[in-house]
Design goal:
With about 375 residues, the protein is mainly beta. It has 2 domains: about 130 residues, Immunoglobulin-like, CATH 2.60.40; about 150 residues, Porin (Beta Barrel), CATH 2.40.160. It is about 5% helix and about 55% strand. It contains 2 helices and 27 strands. The strands form 3 sheets. Strands 12-13-14-15-16-17-18-19-20-21-22-23-24-25-26-27 form a 16-stranded antiparallel beta barrel. Strands 1, 4, 6, 7, 8 and 11 form a 6-stranded antiparallel beta sheet that branches. β13 and β14 form a beta hairpin. The chain is elongated. The N terminus is likely disordered.
Length: about 375
């Protein structure tokens, strides 16, 4: 009978029907209420040479109770860089979260864990871990009193994210199909420091990986180091006021200069093998007219804009984003476009948004008359759901 009582009491304790506390400090009580732990991370399985070779990996995320039992677990496998998002659910918040990757050499970065009491719907303080250490493993625990994640593993760079931090982009993928050809896929991931500055990105296109590092001075982006394989080039940015007026590639031998009207680019000149001069004009009705002039082309495009909030606006420094947008890269504020004077060549854009109003998908369809010539689908992922 004594043995039976011990078993019953142990079972009730494990189910949270009893809580242990110090009579002098009732605040230390542990309440058995269902919790969830949203988990986000980036994997970088591309090879260090920048070629298309990749290493397969297995990433395991576990919620472990104080008795050492695994309460919930998620396993992810793959051979390509990507964004991971899932959720662990437990009957108590008094748990440890274990994150482990095999092989340990696979970089896992931008790891965020967002706790939430599912009974009260109250979120706890999230944590961001910059990257897994060389061991490929990290352990954290959840403090149910302070409602925050605390790192157990020593020597780990981590921080509590500021408001809006987890709404930054973590990855963007683009799949383009032209005619009957096989789709072409591109992929880019982003990493940030504790202040929310973009510090690095990885771009994979046609089997080649380009890694970029962003350097700041007095809060301004002043330099971008881009590496493909063993070759690194540096782009240096020069400002006039708050605008970037010159971007010079020190090794590639080309540069781009920009003229502004207030905060808007009106002329952009690229030097090098494919010299291009672009002139931009705007009007009160919203359309943007852009004229490209090169040795072989003098073409004018007209864009009809919308009021979408650009997902890159929270992720890329505003001055640099202007340079990307004028080239037509990363635009999410377009409804349609056409070649000036030609009704046959048109492109239309449609968007999907999540419950937070963030753009998660953009589809661009180009037509020559009624015939679809290409379709491009861009998917946006964020540091949290």
């Amino acid at each position: 009978m004594k043995k039976t009582k011990k078993i019953l009491i142990g079972a009730m304790l494990s189910l949270g029907l009893f809580s242990c506390s110090n009579n002098d400090d009732n605040s230390s009580k542990v309440v058995a209420e269902e919790h969830s732990f949203e988990f986000n991370a980036q994997t970088d399985a591309s090879s260090p040479t920048g070629k298309n070779a990749a290493t397969s990996y297995t990433l395991t995320v576990e919620a472990v109770g104080k008795d050492g039992k695994v309460l919930d677990t998620k396993t992810f496998t793959g051979t390509a860089s990507g964004q991971i998002n899932d959720k662990l659910t437990t009957t108590t918040g008094d748990v440890e979260i274990h994150v482990k990757v095999l092989p340990a050499t696979i970089p896992i970065k931008n790891i965020s864990i967002l706790p939430k009491n599912e009974k009260t719907k109250e979120p706890g303080k999230a944590i961001v871990i910059a990257a897994l250490p060389a061991t490929g493993e990290v352990k954290v625990n959840y403090d149910t009193i302070q409602k925050e994640i605390k790192v157990i593993t020593q020597g780990i760079e981590s921080f509590i994210p500021s408001d809006g931090f987890l709404d930054r982009l973590s990855a963007v993928s683009v799949e383009t199909t032209v005619g009957t050809a096989a789709p072409v896929k591109r992929y880019k991931t982003f990493a940030y420091d504790s202040k929310g500055n973009l510090v690095s990105s990885v771009y994979v296109n046609a089997g080649v990986t380009e890694k970029s590092e962003y350097v700041y001075e007095a809060g301004r982006l002043i330099k971008i180091n881009k590496t493909v394989g063993a070759k690194t080039t540096t782009e240096v940015l020069t400002y006039t006021g708050d605008n970037i007026t010159l971007l010079k590639n020190e090794l590639g031998g080309y540069q781009s200069s920009y003229v502004y009207d207030g905060a808007k680019i009106v002329t952009a000149t690229d030097t090098g093998t494919n010299a291009v001069t672009s002139t931009l004009s705007y009007n009160a009705q919203n359309p943007l007219r852009m004229t490209y002039k090169t040795n072989a082309m003098n073409q004018s495009l007209v864009y009809i804009l919308n009021t979408n909030v650009d997902p890159f606006a929270t992720s890329i420094p505003a001055a640099y984003l202007k340079l990307l947008s004028y080239k037509g890269e990363d635009k999410t504020n377009i409804e349609s476009e056409q070649v000036d004077g030609t009704t046959a060549l048109t492109a239309t854009y449609t968007y999907e948004k999540d419950s937070k109003g963030r753009i998660v998908k953009k589809t661009r369809v180009t037509k020559d008359g009624t015939v679809v010539t290409s379709t491009s689908v861009t998917t946006y992922q964020y540091l949290s759901k």
